[in-house]
Design goal:
By secondary structure, this protein is of the alpha/beta class. It is 38% helix and 13% strand. The model has no long low-confidence stretch (mean pLDDT 96).
Amino acid sequence: MKNEKELRKEIATLVSEFYQTKFANQKYIPGKSPVRYAGRVFDEKELVSLVDSSLDFWLTEGRYAEEFQSQFADFVGVDYAILTNSGSSANLLAFTALTSELLGERRLKAGDEVISVAAGFPTTVNPIIQNNMVPVFCDVDLGTYNVKISDIEKAITSKTRAIFLAHTLGNPYDLDAIVELVKKHNLWLIEDCCDALGSTYKGKHVGTFGHVATCSFYPAHHITIGEGGMIFTNDDVIARAVTSFRDWGRDCYCKGGENNTCGKRFSGSYGTLPKGYDHKYVYSHIGYNLKVTDMQAAIGVEQMKKLPHFVARRKENFKAWTEGFRAWTDKFILPEATKNSDPSWFAFPVTVKPNAGFTRTELTDYLASHQIETRNLFAGNLLRQPAYAKVAHRVASELANTEIIMNDSFFLGTYPGLTQEQINHTIKLIQEFLTTRALKR
């Protein structure tokens, strides 16, 4: 009989062989194979790690989750990294944590106003609404696609308590200006880094400028565990609140399989509960269960090792798109990095100019007919979306650029699996489209 160690080694070898058979050496054929805007990039190591975790049959968070959180915290440069089941859940937990009574008088309350943008992804704004607060929508700049600082300055009132913004498509916003406003008006800053893992501002990772930040591990993002997200912070009180809200709202902070970490499991006093009530069943917040499995975390451990390479590839692909589009600046507004930033680009966004001679939809439809994936800049204008028609909100100024983005902007992928051959093929198709349009005019 083979022992466990020998069997695990044999299984790992077979899993590596399976990867080579099923996933390795997939060839791209121009005109026949699709050019994706995003996708999973992995090798046999992720599969081996995933299967190894499954053999433990621990299922909930365990040894791999601890390692993944530690790797992530070290990479970004923070004290706390807390796993959750999606980037959207990360946003919900990060924002809701700021309502905790652990924060005293500084905590957010129903009716408070929170500054955000309408040109983005819904789950950056949803936690504001779900916590009965009022989103205040600012416009964005074309090119960077990030918030207009002048709009934030106009938006701040005595009711403003926080700023909750995503670094759009990996491009950091003007953190110097925003942090200055946060300090001046004693506001909370929540950084949504779901599209920006690896982006830096003045050499420092995004997500480390505010009070709390989030990241997503959906397959389209910089690394993936399928579904998953991370909340990260240097504030131990916020970290405790996040963990409580994530773990049913319980007051206990023991890890899975641990007991009596606090040393007073059966001797503490909590509210009007009987003295010595089991701390494992004391609830200090109205929470959720938003944890991940250790099998997901096992994938993350290997993805983190590839992250520096992934970031470099995204930057290379962004540069290749820039070179390809350089001849068409009369027809497109090209993306630009925020001053002092070094983006780990999620995508390559462009906006069709008014006098281009074609519409965004005409071009993206043409590309789709040739198996080239594009995406709009998420919701375009959230206030035009059906779900937000009756949401209480305030608009800081006319959302003129947000409207342009809704009608005229789209993006192409920069993910590490994208090749120069695929970019060249797409550039050739766009040139064919532009030539055809010119001949028809």
